[in-house]
Amino acid sequence: MATQTFQRTWRRRSTRRELALWFGWLLLVALFVFCWQVMTENTIWMFVTDAPRQAADIGSRMFPPRWEYIPALLEPLWDTLNIATLGTLLALFMAVPVAFLAARNTTPSVRFVRPVALLIIVASRSINSLIWALLLVAVIGPGVLAGIVAIAFRSIGFVAKLLYEAIEEIDESQVEAISATGASKAQVMDYAVAPQILPAFAGITVFRWDINIRESTVLGLVGAGGLGLRLQESLNVLAWPQVTVIFILILITVLVSEWVSAKVRHAII
Amino acid sequence: MTAKAHPRTWSRPPLIQRTWLRWSLYGGALIYLALATASVEVNWLRVWEGLDRGLRFVQGFLVPDFTSRWGDILQGMEESLTMTVTATVVGVLISVPIGIGAARNIAPLPIYAVCRAIVALSRSFQEIIVAILFVAMFGFGPFAGFLTLSFATIGFLAKLLAEDIEDIDESQVEAIRATGAGWWQVVAYGIQPQVMPRLIGLSLYRLDINFRESAVIGIVGAGGIGATLNTAMDRYEYDSAAAILILIILIVMAAEYLSGFVRKWVQ
Question: Is the Cβ pair A214, B126 closer than 8 Å?
């Protein structure tokens, strides 16, 4: 029997794989340096080095917060909550059909209808709600309605994507059992598919509502109503003490909505 | 044996078991909806007038104009893409130590508290608000955007990485520790191999998010394609705006496809 020489030290990868890995890292570093160069081409470094002073300056102007400003913020806050909630509801009405059309097991046609539904989902998801708001403010005018529709358009993709994944993962034996009783297509949907996805649906809805509260606080920056409108006004006149109050209010709103959504999701699931 | 009268028909059990809670929830929701819809002021005349613009926008989408603003679009895209890459790299580099520090099973309590506080701070403010502050401090341009995206990346990635580290298989860590390995060696040989595939996946996902966000923070002056888009909208050049949006969608789709490919290859 020939004695085999074993390697003395253990190595995770072969030499070739190790070299490939290092080469990959090298490429990443090169890409980073290249991007950094391109990005900072037009940066005025004087402003950057000046930043700590600027930060201290803004910080000193932000305090103390102007608490008397709060009563003026209550109505925008109500608007913000409405934008998020009504926007989420509107999105649900549109997202549910899209999800059923996009799911492989419920779509009427995998060839023709499914790609269209997937395209709607991708388009809605790639465009941030602020950009949707920018478009809608131009089309239907500034105000709460533009915010609601913007939130709805952004949420369609999110809700529909998660929902169609949930639909595709359902237990087919239940569908079979219901159809074996002679149920029609609609009855199969109602008694076999819907009960299985309902918890996921409720969870997704609350999750999205939470995100929408977050996003609707700043939609006003482009004129779509809510707290952001006041933020924009205060920024325009450099009223930093008011900006602080708005930031604090946004923070509280976001924390409360996160807490509510966590509680509700916990209760459902 | 007394025969119990079984009900002949079956009805589904309600989602919320307690009757009073169910009805008060329904009632509350109805009242809220009525109040909320009543407080939404809609200027239907303005909406009607705007439909014309909406139509023009749809037409812009059908016939997007890539050429007349191509220089601006190219520069915006260049800023957005470079900003995205640099911010993701820097954000990941910073969030790895913070993520390790925020995992309760390997970090001592004081470090854990500090790291969790950083994560909470970074997560509670949206990109756009951070961008406003950074633009005020560092001046207009992609550098403020780069800082914003890096800051946002930290909260996202560190939190998910910490949760991932907390979920790892402890027996592997124990095995490494049993060989007499120090803390660094435990992290390098017991934890890193377990979380690496997911870390790479998350980084790619964040790259995708950062690109999408880079299209937004330009609205408040932090550079990138968002600034170009905002200008195009302000000038009512809907065909150019449509071209930009189509490019954004295409890049996001390409990034999603690519990251799916890389994730499959890594795992």
Answer: yes
- Residue B140: what pLDDT? 80
Q: Are the beta carbons of A138 and B50 separated by less than 8 Å? A: yes
- ipTM of model: 0.77
Secondary element (H or E) of residue B157: helix B142-166
Task: For residue B71, tell me if it sits in a domain.
Answer: yes
Instruction: Yes or no: say if A221 and B230 are a contact pair by the CB < 8 Å rule.
Output: no
What's B93's domain CATH number?
1.10.3720.10
Q: Is the pTM of this model over 0.95?
A: no
Contacts of B232 (CB under 8 A, 6+ apart): B69, B238, B240, B241, B244
In this structure, what CATH number is given to the domain that contains residue A207? 1.10.3720.10
User: Is A227 a domain residue?
Assistant: yes
If one counts the domains in chain B, the total is 1
Domain range for A176: 67-268
Tally of domains within chain A = 1
Distance CA B89, CA B104 (A): 25
Residue of B nearest to A222 (CA): B219
- Is B6 within a domain? no
Identity of the residue in B46, B220, B248 whose CB atom sits nearest the CB atom of A141: B46
Does A92 reside within a domain?
yes
For position B153, what pLDDT does the model report?
92
- Chain-chain contact of B229 with A254 (C-beta, under 8 angstroms): no
Distance CA B129, CA A246 (A): 11
| Residue B239 contacts A, CB cutoff 8 Å | no
Per-residue model confidence as pLDDT tens digits over A50-107: 778 877 887 887 778 778 777 888 888 888 888 899 999 999 999 999 998 988 888 8
